[in-house]
Amino acid sequence: xxxxxxxxxxxxxxxxxxxxxxxxxxxxxxxxxxxxxxRLADDVRERLxxxxxxxxxxxxxxxxxxxxxxxxxxxxxYARKPGQEGGYTMQLEQVFHFAEQEYSDSLxxxxxxxxxxxxxPLDYYLDLLRGLKKRFPSVHLKAFTMIELDFFTKIxxxxxxxxxxxxxxxGLGSCPGGGAEIFAERARPLIAGHKISGxxxxxxxxxxxxxxxxxxxxxxxxxIETLEERVDHLIRLRQLQDETGGFNCFIPLAFxxxxxxxxxxxxxxxxxxxxxxxxxxLMLDNFAHIKAYWVTLTPSLAQIALRFGADDLDGTIIxxxxxxxxxxxxxxxxxxxxxxxxxxxxxxxxxxRDTLYNPVQRVSELV
Length: 367
Ligand code: V47
Description:
Layout: H1 2-15, H2 22-30, H3 34-49, E1 52-56, E2 58-61, H4 92-102, E3 109-112, H5 122-135, E4 140-143, H6 146-156, H7 160-170, H8 188-192, H9 198-210, E5 215-221, H10 227-244, E6 247-254, H11 270-283, E7 289-290, H12 294-297, H13 299-305, E8 312-315, H14 322-325, H15 336-345, E9 349-352
Parallel strand pairs: 1-8, 1-9, 2-3, 3-4, 5-6, 6-7
Bound molecules: ligand V47.
């Protein structure tokens, strides 16, 4: 009875377009009325994005897996300590060669991230961006998380604004949303070692936005965090978005424990994944887009998420290393035709977008 009342109270607020509180976010998570939750999130999604579902044609470049951070969720699965077996760092020529192999006329984005490698100077990153921009001028470079940007200030001993300006001049288009993990002060060090705090992640994102560069935001869930800590994470993002409006989209990332120190933990369940998409859509009323990242969710569940609040499936990718390193069972890539079929079979209209959500017009056949 109590739960029913809470859900109908929240439903009324959602229909009036009113902002939900922390407590209401937690109540939504606690409810197992997944149908009502999905319908509420779907209503909001349709209000914001009508029947459209976005995807893009992108490739990932992970230039190094060498990382000084003892991050429990990534060390061993993807990252390696300096000098440790299995570590790699691509020479710039290797990056360009890889990019040339991955390039096709339909490519609109390179998604570029790597570990915090103490042997690389800032010039490596600047030359990487310049070299890619010169070779592929029409491809958007979505590069470096807030963690990497903060690291660049440490290796250069320069202010963040200076670092961002150098990267922008070299060709940086926008920033991906990784490294946010979970902001809560209790949980964060238990999964992310001595990675920068949640407060610092938000501060770097604020600076990026204030300099006119857009970025994404993520939340890693399904490890040792509480439901309250998830809702707290969403509210901190919502506050920053109120201030800057600089986030393009939000991407909840389901934790894959294999090969990490948390290998004993179970993977997330379908119920939890769909609830997280729906609660995110309902809490983040100032985010235009919620991405169902098929790499972590599986294409089938990501497709269902398109009826639970998500309006974006991310991209074709082809080679993803970070979450595959931690055992995700999904394949490495999808063709445009496969993504469009998933979207159409969910009753949605596929729209190919660029990184900044402008529709991409094509005359070619889908491949
Ligand atoms: O920052 C690390 C997460 C992120 C694991 O901005 C893990 O468009 C699951 O941020 N299990 C990288 N997740 C991926 C990412 C991303 C992906 C797609 C699109 C965008 C975007 C960003 O993956 C890391 C971390 O939060 N991660 N280890 C793991 N074991």
